[in-house]
Predict the 3D structure of the following.
Amino acid sequence: MRHALFTVAVLSGLVGAACGSSAGRGGAGWLGTIDTLPSGQVVVANPADPIWPEGGEWRVIEELRIGSVTGDGADVFGRINGLAVDPAGRMWVFDSQAQELRVFDATGAHVRTVGRRGGGPGEFAQAVRVELGPDGNIWVMDPQNNRLSVFDTAGVYLEGKPALGGFIILPWPGRFDARGRYYAPVPVTGRDGFHMDMVRYDTAFTPMDTLRPPDDPVEREGFELRSERGHIVAGVPFQGRLTWRISPAGTIWALITDQYRLFEVGPDGDTLRTITRAFEPIPVTAADLEQAREDLKWFTDQGGRVDWSKIPDTKPPVQTFFFDDEDDIWVERVTSSDMRGRVFDVFDPVGRYLGAVRLPFALTTSPPPVVRDGVLYGVTRDELDVAYVVRARIVKPEAA
């Protein structure tokens, strides 16, 4: 059962408060519009120009990098699919190849390793997310073991919370919200086919209700191959898609990448807010098409046929997004291949486009970056595909 938790009055108050504080967010020169539809949906339309003045952009300065190309130390990572930061600034890094948590202090020194592969208490079979819980402990979702394992910040195993498992989704869409409620996916098969709902648990970890993630309003094409061995579908290169996240407020935010349109869906399924930003289309080049041929070789080698006329002439302007601790939305911009993961458009909680942040490293969004008190923690990979954990300071110039 779904319950509406938001009202038009609350949303209007948020919009009014944010509009009145634009100077405090970096300038009052915003040229966009905010409208409220009869349904109560707030529509924020942004121009391509940011609020931040030239020279007033946020800067990200790398302070620490943990990782090594060679050796047998704890800083040699196989694949990182979980990252959490505790109140002491210790970084809890989950290596999925080893199925263990490696803890590093604020200087980057290895403190301890927690857990190992297995099915017993404190062990992991296929953990997919690490998170600082509302109780100050470290929570590790392990759907293969059908549980959330809870550790204190000394690495001591406290308990396992039963959770529906048996299936793996990466990136894992579950998380805590700001009120300490947990969200976990559950597969649903019905008359309309297979889909995934999100079960919401209260702070006692009792199921409350479910949320239905939005469907892509655009019907996307694919290249299909049917044979005696089965049915294979390959995506069309440079085609847009819908990606979604649970927000800190417990709503669902979704991004339609080829439209540069973000929208927020409440627990009752109603659209609460829509954010758009004007953009210049990015053409698909001959080099892009050559790379697409390489990427589809696995499909054509099996006999699949590619209709190249279905490939769009332009790329989606954005890829995905994440939230920081002030409810700003960071949207990854599509750029040249050597700048992938380095440029993020930042929107304030109401949806006004603040400006672009350019990172000194390529940031991956899986696992989700952690932003706390002006510090960004995340995972990057070098040209050899070696994984590193990075910590960087976000410098925000004072508003004029």
